[in-house]
Amino acid sequence: MNYAVEINRLTKSFSQVTAVDEVSFSLEAGKIYGLLGRNGAGKTTIMHMITAQLFPTSGEIKVFGQHPYENNRVLSQICFIKESQKYPDSFRVIDVLEAAQAFFPNWDRDYAYSLIEEFRLPLKRGMKKLSRGMLSSVGIVIGLASRAPLTIFDEPYLGLDAVARNLFYDRLLEDYSEHPRTVILSTHLIDEVSNILEHVIVIDKGKLLLDEDAEALRGRAFTVVGPASKVESFTEDKEMIHRESIGGLVSAAVLGRPGAEEREQAEALGLDLASVSLQQLIVYLTRDHSAGKAVNA
Question: Are residues 234 and 248 both part of a single domain?
């Protein structure tokens, strides 16, 4: 198997806090991954270790088969676009684009300038004077035009409106199909990117909670809604991951895919079934995991 990233029992502690706790997973080359989880779960710490900006307390990281630390051969193949990206005070948008060529061997200058036009970015404006959305757009342009074999986007579209975010998704898929690479998307807008992701990794409280193909997760759970007694009867032998009451009705989320027999049972009981979105599934799993419940996804 050709792996872009291999992580084995990775741990990172800060004083008395363990931000990442013995996490292990591998990323295949040429796939789009979602690195998901709640704020403070440890996602950004993992990305900082992959990109050699933090040293692990213990465990091992390999990027393209090598250790990334002080390894320019590896680091030149990585583009990490992070939420709080800093630029020199004097830099304008055009200066950022021109400097990028020195950092990314596969940099496509023409493509970068075409993206600048599409995102309506002012080339001569100073980076310090850009809005939050414009700063995000500059990061997206750099990430896409870098054509880096490992491209990481950490919350890349803060401040962008829906039109600009959809433009990013469209361009990402188009360029990925023409120039395959490994892409990591870390985002809280899970529903928006759910059809883009090929594999999902969920981190919660520093631990690996889920590592599975996105297609297998779609439809992994469903909700059943109806009178409390009937919902209780329907879910009696099933694994519930969420339950809430609304007046006299109960809505329960159940792991699994309802078969024909279960659909017939629900219909006979007058219950409504609906699939759970990927985002809602992860919300339920991380909420229950944080509450100390077992999650067998």
Answer: yes
Do 70 and 178 lie in one domain? The reply is yes
Q: Are strands 150-154 and 78-81 parallel, antiparallel or unpaired?
A: parallel
Q: Is the domain of 97 the same as that of 242?
A: no
Is there a single domain that holds both residue 190 and residue 133?
yes
Q: Does the residue 127 lie in any domain?
A: yes
pLDDT at 288: 55
pLDDT at 9: 97
Residue 271: give its domain's CATH number: 3.30.70.2020
**pTM of the complete model:** 0.88
292 lies in a domain? no
Convert the pLDDT of each residue in 46-94 to its tens digit.
999 999 999 999 999 999 999 999 999 999 999 999 877 888 889 999 9
- Is the domain of 209 the same as that of 226? no
pLDDT confidence of residue 290: 47
Structure tokens at 200: 């999902």
Give the separation between CA 269 and CA 144, rounded to whole angstroms.
51
- Judged by average pLDDT, the poorest of 6-10, 36-40, 46-50 is 36-40
